[in-house]
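Side project, low priority. Logging it here so it doesn't get lost.
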Amino acid sequence: MSFLLEKVATSGNLGAMRKHKVREYHDSKRPHLKFVVNTKEAGKRSRQFFETKKEAETLAQQKNIELLNGGMEAAQFPSALRIMASEAAKRLAPFRKTLRDAVEFYLPHLQASSRTCSFRELIDELLQAKAADGASKVYVTDLRCRLGQFSSVFGDRLVSEIQAHEIDRWLRDLDVSPVTRNNSRRVLRTAFSFALARNYCLDNPVVKTAKAKEIEGTVGILTVSETARLLEASDAEVLPFIAIGAFAGLRRAEIERLDWSEIDFESGLITVQALKAKSARRRFVKIRENLAKWLAPYAAHRGAVTPNNCRKMLEATRVAAGIKHWPNNALRHSFASYHLAHFNDAAGLALALGHTDAGLVFQHYRQLVKPKDAEKFWNLFPTVGGVSSKVVSIST
């Protein structure tokens, strides 16, 4: 054993390492101590004294074994890496974390980075997936538009590197209303959820962003007089669009996709097909008495209800009717407000609108319209002479 230790301790492969030796010791003040072993602890030299040689040899042998083991480990552990590990351990110490903790935390980020893609590439993949899943063209277009705004700034960035504070700052810099800002945030959340599901990032940073406070405002509607003037000013091409919007409450996009074959005058129902509805669910909307009168001249029509240039015609009709301010979703919101005030049926209104929450309907449209005005609204009929006369009578 002594020969082996001495040989390994001085091996060129392990570097020059001096083994511990037992030396004689003489001190007149301590005559009982006969032997000494020189050692080094934590870089500092020390000496240990013994009365017998056997005790000294035992310590020397123990230290030589430690030296052998330490020398072998050092030979397999590069000095530069050893220094780096030591420095890293010192920096982690105040946080009570180890090098293993640091590796386990950082390694998933590296793995995500190796799988990630740019945000612009993510948009392409997301839109293809949504289209394949049957999302409507309107929804896909909205995604493309809102995500395109974000991509103009972050398009070349890796998805895994985009942080919540960057998204927060971008949202706050948008010169839009709180509702629009939150809609953009919602779309971004959808995009990053898609990325998370594909392991392109470790989490969804949008979840950590702030949501703008939306101050509830009054729903904008048309007055009974404005509705009457709008019907009177409309020509035969655009009148069905206006009448269905005002008296059936279909969304603009739903009316634009509506076919005359889906208006059943015999059963008194309009069918909104699932593929044409925002909610992707089929529903039936009752044709009220006044709406039936407005649509009666078109009972034999086939094909699309809405003409190709409907939006321009609607704007021209609005101007001709002298309506200066056109509220958002004016026809649909008017329908809902007058319907709730006149029929007092929030659940039925929710079904007609394609909503699943009657409480939401009641919350938004309650007390917006006085009952006497609602009665006038639902008594807006064309004159006996027909729609071509462009005269509206208000039956009371």
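Brief comment: The chain has 17 helices and eight strands.
Revisit when time allows.
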